[in-house]
Design a protein that fits this description.
CATH superfamily of the largest domain: Naphthalene 1,2-dioxygenase Alpha Subunit, Chain A, domain 1
Low-confidence stretches: none
Number of helices: 4
Strand order of the largest sheet: 11-17-16-15-14-13-12
Number of domains: 2
């Protein structure tokens, strides 16, 4: 009689993990930060969507006056997701019985009270919301921290002389730590041999300062057959790049001329949304000694996102999704890393999650 092979054991949870890699691949992210959750242009006035921060469902809606609100994504009556409902004025209305919730999460109206004279005082959790750089940001952590924590300042994207930038986002079936590893570990240049965003990387800095991992590479940037035509190699030093995992964000800088930020939204242990902001002081007109006019840059970047950057990032997405599948099958294999920055990222990720769990335990003990 034939016996089927038993299914492999799933990767361990954070508390059961034995190695740094196992802990990093099970860790969530500290909620006491602002997280990008959606591109603002994708949410029209009078619509609602579901966003998820580490298995926590949130109803994000845009009131008819254009303002954004975010509340816990469940109706207190029958627990339906409020994102299934519709927006009326500045309220979100449950699709089932028409219960209305305002932007503070308060039940503001119930169509039929069956003879009751007073509306019951009921609330769901409300989340602070901001819109910046074309992205909608939520603060899922302790409300009192929302004022002291700041969304990263990107001066190049503000003011009358701001650089052009068109946000780009996608969802990948991989843990957030794999995404962070990927964008800052330049030992994977072989993956991008078609587009050549960087080649010949030599690590020159790897330093952890507080919650930030600073690194730098001597590397040739922007040498692709097409993308390289738009970069002013004779003016810009494209042989060096500085990067930082500025927990929970990531950025890079090439000679103060070519920059990017990555904002990850951890959905669960194997799902992450990634929001990229690529921006350039200027780009040149191919084959001509002239720059693209500032008024045309946004249009050029829209085409660049579609024809160059999105296909490039798709290679990364395929790779990290395959890494996730491989990890789930071989999570107990000995970890082998050739680039020391990966361990540095993982140490910060694990420590920040441990600190969050410790605060949660303290709160539980204090309330008990």
């Amino acid at each position: 009689m034939l016996h089927a092979n038993p299914a492999p054991a799933p990767p361990p949870g954070f508390e059961e993990a034995r190695t740094l890699r196992q802990q990093a691949r099970a860790a969530g992210m500290d909620p006491d930060y602002w997280y990008a959750v959606e591109e603002a242009r994708r949410i029209k006035p009078g619509t609602a969507v579901e966003v998820t921060f580490w298995k926590r469902s949130i109803a994000l809606y845009r009131a008819e006056d254009g303002s954004f609100r975010a509340i816990e994504n469940r109706c207190l009556h029958r627990q339906l997701k409020l994102s299934m409902g519709q927006v009326e004025g500045c309220r979100l209305v449950c699709a089932y019985h028409g219960w209305e919730y305002d932007g503070d999460g308060r039940v503001a109206a119930i169509p039929d009270l069956f003879g009751r004279k007073k509306l019951p005082k009921l609330w769901v959790k409300q989340y602070p919301v901001q819109v910046r750089y074309g992205l909608v940001w939520l603060f899922p952590g302790r409300p009192e921290m929302a004022q002291s924590r700041k969304i990263p300042d990107i001066p190049e994207l503000e003011g009358p002389k701001r650089w052009s930038c068109v946000p780009l986002s996608f969802t990948c079936s991989a843990h957030h730590s794999m995404v962070i590893d990927n964008v800052s570990d330049f030992s994977h240049a072989y993956l991008h041999r078609r587009y050549r965003p960087f080649t010949g990387a030599e690590l020159t800095r790897n330093e952890t300062i507080g919650d930030n991992v600073h690194l730098a590479y001597n590397t040739q940037v922007g040498r692709g057959r097409i993308s390289g035509l738009f970069v002013e190699h004779d003016r810009v030093d494209t042989n060096h790049m500085d990067l930082c995992f500025e927990y929970p964000y990531q950025w890079s800088n090439t000679d103060d001329e070519i920059k990017h930020w990555l904002f990850v939204l951890p959905v669960d242990e194997r799902t992450t949304r990634a929001f990229f902001l690529f921006y350039f002081r200027s780009l040149k007109i191919p084959y001509l000694p002239a720059r693209i006019p500032r008024w045309a840059m946004t249009t050029v970047l829209k085409f660049a996102n579609r024809l160059l950057i999105s296909p490039l990032l798709s290679e990364d997405r395929v790779a990290v999704e395959a890494e996730q599948e491989g990890y789930e099958k071989h999570w107990d294999a000995p970890p082998i890393e050739v680039n020391p920055v990966v361990r540095a990222f993982q140490k910060v990720t694990v420590r920040k999650w441990q600190e969050h769990l410790a605060r949660e335990a303290e709160d539980v003990n204090a309330s008990g």
